[in-house]
Design goal:
Its main location: membrane. This protein has 355 residues and is α+β, with helices and mostly antiparallel strands. It has a domain at 10-42 and 273-354. Helices cover 38% and strands 26% of the residues. It has seven helices and 17 strands. It has helices spanning 11-42, 46-49, 200-204, 255-288, 290-297, 303-330, 332-354, and strands at residues 3-5, 54-55, 65-72, 86-104, 110-119, 146-149, 153-157, 162-165, 171-172, 190-192, 195-197, 211-219, 225-232, 235-237, 239-240, 246-247, 249-252. The strands form three sheets. Strands 1, 4, 5, 6, 10, 11 and 12 form a seven-stranded antiparallel β-sheet that branches. A hairpin with a 2-residue loop joins strand 10 (190-192) and strand 11 (195-197). Helix 1 packs antiparallel against helix 4, helix 4 (255-288) packs across helix 6 and helix 5 packs antiparallel against helix 6. The longest helix has 34 residues, at 255-288. It is flat and about 80 Å long. It starts with a strand and ends with a helix.
Length: 355
């Protein structure tokens, strides 16, 4: 039997009361979304900071520089992977354990229950609110999350000189991707559907208490790589831009190919963040109109349709405002010129009218 936690008040008044509280969150989220848009559009990205980098032979203070050559490093292994030619090794685990769930009805009454699911950090069921769930067994994770990088990494430049680099400081592009080790690369365990299992039983069936492990490695590419940052002597480190940001990026191929990869990743990241800004603004509008949404939910037949239509309308408004704000931030100088021109025209018309 699920555990019920009644909200403050009930029915339409209780629902509207809760939604009024949400207005405060909406008031905070709207300016936050505008601030996020400003940050996204004005933040310095690697592609812009490293543009115009010079070869290592021409490296000098204040300019980004790069090295193209073959990467090598000490063999790297892990708890579940045999040593090999890897840039990095990563592991994390999930346990098929009990997780608390909750549902809220139109009267703001919360019902607590629990279910078995893959959980990265299982909680002790004794802390659950449902009395029925408190007696469930507590399953802990036995594998520690870990990320490690190969040591003594060196780049043998095309001109024959060797440079050292700390791989943990490098931002690799999506072209230098991670893979799930194959059976022959594992020191123990069984891979099934992209996860590592320490028992055959768990690999075959999903059973309470089973643990699955995500293991990935980034192989050292066979091709030449280009590292763009700051070359100093026989080492490659982070480049500090005029804005004080630090960058050290790498990809497969020559300098031009690497810069294209960096720019491509920058664009993807920017569009993802723009999407986040749009969602934050959309949610703020929904919260601001929470009382109206609550009223609509109590209208038979058309209430849910009205809520959906209003949400879509607010989404369109949020999309338009997000787009306009992006344009205002990116092309502020054009708006400034237009504003000054408008002020000048208004002054001219006023003088002409009084002449």
């Amino acid at each position: 039997m699920a555990f019920e936690d009644s909200g403050e008040g009930g029915g339409i008044l209780g629902s509207i009361g809760e939604s009024i509280k949400g207005i405060l969150a909406g008031v905070a989220l709207f300016p936050a979304s505008l601030f996020l848009i400003y940050q996204v559009e004005t933040c310095e990205q690697a592609g812009a900071a490293l543009k115009g980098a010079v070869p290592a032979a021409q490296a000098q203070a204040g300019l980004a520089s790069y090295v193209t050559g073959k990467l090598s490093a000490n063999s790297l292994g892990g708890e579940f992977v045999k040593p090999g030619k890897y840039i990095s090794y990563s592991q994390s685990s999930e346990v098929y354990a009990w997780e608390e769930t909750s549902k809220e009805d139109s009267n703001k009454k919360k019902t607590y229950d629990c279910k078995l699911d893959w959980v990265s950090s299982p909680k002790n069921p004794r802390d659950f609110k449902s009395s029925q769930c408190k007696s469930k067994q507590y399953h802990r994770s036995t594998v520690e999350d870990k990320d490690s990088y190969a040591s003594d990494a060196r780049i043998k430049g095309e001109e024959g000189k060797t440079y050292t680099v700390h791989l943990g400081e490098v931002d690799f592009t999506s072209e230098v991707g991670s893979i799930v080790p194959e059976a022959g690369q594992l020191s123990r365990g069984t891979v099934e559907d992209g996860y590592l299992y320490l028992s055959e039983k768990c690999a075959r069936d999903t059973v309470e208490g089973c643990e699955r492990i995500s293991v990935s490695v980034v192989p050292i590419p066979e091709e030449n790589m280009t590292f763009v940052g700051s070359v100093s002597g026989a080492s490659v480190g982070k480049f500090t831009s005029k804005e004080g940001n630090k960058f050290l990026n790498a990809s497969v191929g020559d300098y031009l190919t690497t810069m294209k990869d960096i720019q491509s990743d920058d664009n993807v990241q920017k569009w993802v963040m723009r999407g986040v800004c749009f969602v934050v603004m959309w949610v703020s509008f929904i919260l601001l109109l929470g009382p109206l949404m609550s009223l609509l939910s109590f209208i038979p037949f058309v209430g849910e349709f009205g809520k959906a239509a209003l949400s879509i309308f607010l989404g369109i408004i949020a999309f338009l405002i997000t787009g306009i704000t992006i344009l205002l931030v990116k092309f502020w100088y054009i708006w400034l010129i237009l504003g000054l021109a408008a002020i000048g025209y208004a002054i001219y018309k006023r003088k002409a009218a009084t002449a």
